[in-house]
Amino acid sequence: xxxxxxxxxxxxxxxxxxxxxxxxxxxxxxxxxxxxxxxxxxxxxxxxxxxxxxxxxxxxxxxxxxxxxxxxxxxxxxxxxxxxxxxxxxxxxxxxxxxxxxxxxxxxxxxxxxxxxxxxxxxxxxxxxxxxxxxxxxxxxxxxxxxxxxxxxxxxxxxxxxxxxxxxxxxxxxxxxxxxxxxxxxxxxxxxxxxxxxxxxxxxxxxxxxxxxxxxx
Length: 217
Prior knowledge:
By secondary structure, this protein is mainly alpha-helical. It has helices spanning about 1-25, 30-40, 45-65, 70-75, 80-95, 120-130, 135-145, 150-160, and strands at about 180-185, 190-195, 200-205. The protein has three domains: about 40-100; about 115-170, no CATH class; about 175-215, no CATH class. Helices cover about 50% and strands about 5% of the residues.
């Protein structure tokens, strides 16, 4: 009786192993490097690769500084100025090894870096920033919820998080300036005098429920 049970168990084990072979699965324990990644770490070779890539970015940044400002040079190498400064401090303190990431996500590029808004979508986002008086989160939430020109992946992120993705956070921002506005005698032309040289003029379109009030300056 016991030998029959033993034979049955052996048959089941053989069948399971054959299925594993067919599907390409393996019951062998994963190597130490895989366990390190599953716990949120990186293998040493992967960390060195990221460090070398960052070091090369610093070298390109220094070469660009000969003909460009810090902000322009950082933008051309795909990094921010604070990030460049932080990397330079790490290199000064620990060498290239200081550029190795401390967690699994470090060095990974955001999927939103490839997202591009159309000129029409960018214009509408700018108008929303003006309408919400610089409240970027409110502008992005309205843009994601109601504007068909907002990319689906961006709309989903904003509606879930309530804020724009990091790589896109600077899009559509506007800066308020102190300017004087004048309207023509017939009420059809608008003149804007910014605090710099020149005068902006445009055809004046006033909503029906808005009345213009002339104020003496």
